[in-house]
Amino acid sequence: MEYRNDILCHWQDLYQKTRCNPNMIDIQPELEWHMRPHLLDFLVDSHGGLGLKQETLFLAISIIDRYTSKRVVYKRHYQLVGCAALWIASKYHDCKSKIPTLDELKLLCCHAYESHMFVQMEMHILSTLDWLVDCSTCDLYVDAYLNDVKTIYRLDPNVRMVALYLCEVSLFYKHMIEFSSADLAFCAVRLAMVVCNMNPGELYPGPYHDTPVTELSRCLDLMARACTSPPRSLHVKHSAPNGCAVDLVRLHVNGKARPVTPMNSTGYEPRQLPSPAVEGAYGVNKGINTGVPMVATVATVPAVSMAPMTMTPPYTPEPHYDNYGQYYYGDETEDDYDYDCEEY
């Protein structure tokens, strides 16, 4: 329990270091926002097909956003960036046997890219991010909020599933990227409790962030609108027989709220985080209603200071062969290799 505040401070520091600026993505010369849902559909399908962990998907999308806000990415490399980001995230979160191989990545992209292109893009992403891969993703905050709430009353085991579904839906939309992971997680958990016919009155923003209530109200409204028409990949992922989040949201929207299912021994227990005392652990922002509030008028979120974009390699060069039959790529020359002529 003594480490709880340290964990929250670490998450906040990570957010400040890894925050994405959508304004920088806006100035991409070839990428358009309407391409993003297609890439994320591809990532969700690939993530599910490979059987990777839930947190891997959130981290992969974060890596894509951070990279595209710092580097100019050409349209023909967009899928390559997505696959490389998923590859990096899987190495960070998944066990070794689950990490996709280069052959699997090539198959996912229908052999549009060669093996060395994935390796090259992986190194380019890591160097662009200064090797800072980790970030405070939505799933971390969802579990933190659920740990707080379950100290008050028993949770419906579907709350976490619906909350993660709402977080995933939010990541598809440009106007949701400006909200922090803590904001999205808070709104997702609150809406999930409403969908599961639970009273979220005891769920407060808490010590995770100090976002104004008006901002959270706007986030809640945008999320509630977005979840009624999920992207294709998420509709498949969270519909029967794979899940029931889409059905639960649809029942709630149609006014057919499902009775509360009490937590039992088979229900999901969120990841443990030391829980503070409920009284006095939260701030003064307690003015959010149980239902989804109306859109509030808020000031524009200040832009994050960030260096201007730098160009990625305009193309992934084909290998060039030297006099010894060895090959090298783009930025390298024969002079970069020190050969012992006696060996040849």
TrEMBL record:
Q: Which domain of life is it from?
A: Eukaryota
Q: What keywords is this UniProt entry annotated with?
A: Cell cycle, Cell division, Cyclin
A single BP term in Gene Ontology: regulation of cell cycle
Its name, as the record gives it, is ARAD1A02530p
Q: Which family does it belong to?
A: Belongs to the cyclin family.
Gene3D superfamilies xrefs: Cyclin-like
Any GO MF annotation of the entry: cyclin-dependent protein serine/threonine kinase regulator activity
Which part of the chain is the Cyclin-like domain? 41-127, 144-225
What SUPFAM superfamilies is this protein classified in? Cyclin-like
Annotated source species:
Blastobotrys adeninivorans
Does the keyword Cell cycle feature in the UniProt annotation?
yes
Hydrolase as a keyword?
no
- Pfam families cross-referenced by the UniProt entry: Cyclin_N
Q: Which PROSITE patterns match?
A: CYCLINS
